[in-house]
Specification:
Mean pLDDT: 86
Radius of gyration: 30 Å
Low-confidence stretches: 404-415
Distance between the termini: 47 Å
Strand content: 5-15%
Largest sheet: 5 strands, parallel
Length: 484
Amino acid sequence: MAKTVLVVDDDPTQRRLIQAVLERDGYAVVHASGGGEAIDRMTRGGSADVVLLDMVMPEMSGMECLAELRSAGVTTPVIVLTANAGVEAVVKAMQAGAQDFFVKPVSPERLLIGVSNALQLTQLSAEVGRLTKKAQGRASFDDIVGDSAPMRLVKALGARAAKSSIPVLITGESGVGKEVIARALHGASDRAGKPFVAVNCGALPANLAESILFGHEKGAFTGAVEKTLGKFREADGGTLFLDEIGELPLDLQVKLLRALQEGEIDPVGGKRPVKIDVRIVSATNRDPDQQVRDGAFREDLFYRLNVFPIEAPSLRDRREDIPALVEHFIARFNAEEGKRIAGCAPETMALLQAHDWPGNVRQLENAVFRAIVLADAPFLQPHDFPAISGVAAPMPAVQPHAQPVAPATAYGDLPPLPDQPIRILDDRGHLRTLDDIERDLIQHAIEVYSGHMSEIARRLGIGRSTLYRKVREQGLEGQLKEAG
């Protein structure tokens, strides 16, 4: 799914040049010829993932447009375009809510890196919010990715079940996201913020399963050197998620049934029952009716757990959710791996949507993870999914030696420069000091204008004596000699 960039500039030539660079790299581009048009688009149903905003426009300045966007609640990252590289203008733009700035003329490399950085910061913010809600036990059905008809039904049923403490049994194939649904049930209920404890019943050791679930007293058996609360008491006041409930041994099924009926548990070695207040959500990838008929699952426990059934659909039954899922995983793995993948190429997305995904969402997640680790291009290509596409990655081409570029003499028509970003944020995402930014600006101007101090001073909007003083203060005399 291509990311959309809104270019706001009153100069149609500038808009077309920027559009050509961005579209060549796979971005979708939309235009606005002024600040008012941009505000209308962003506040009345239009959308964009990044806004490139010119600072000098006839009817409404870029600074005024930026202020209006932020006051209207638009959080889309904004990168300002300016012909004035003065520190004061840059600082004002950052204080008004801009994320980055470009000094005209901007090189294609700098443009693409700036847009990629803006998208990555948005993804990081979203990932931090998602992880925070998950850690606090407040993830809800709005956080579940997917808007297909089967998922809308799951969300509607889950929202109803969350309003009470009714036991819920989630069925579905392995990898469909049953625990995600269980967490949303917890986060949408009045138990949100309380403990959410997940137990994989199929992974419980047979000799310790009862102790793990119900706890034990010190000295209850050999090796019980201290008291253990158990999963039920860890989840007291919250939700206990029993995954793969069909794998629970029959003897433990009896004790689980009593805990559900009486609202109390018997710790191993305990002298008296312990009252508990736990909401039970269970899940299985087996057919529980067939397990009951085969005698592998107690019928009375099944009826106790299956009060409110929810069936999680397989991924092949909701293929229209694959683009949103892929975008979600790209954002997550970009944040975790420090990558800058912008999305999927159209042919890649068509390939992913046509695949059957027997491992469901978990398989898709792992495939995207592998693709992001290996990908070199901004957009994932079919060869990044060799197990699905059958296409091997191309061999890297040998790059020829770059030819030197003749210096420009007309400052009004400079050739594109190699990427020389003037960063506003440091590696940890905090604002750099004004002194550091000023030094980068002056150094950049010296390189662009070949050390011609009159032109540099004019472009920076300062006097020549001030410029010479700042060059000395910043220790850039050597840079000046090299440029001359």
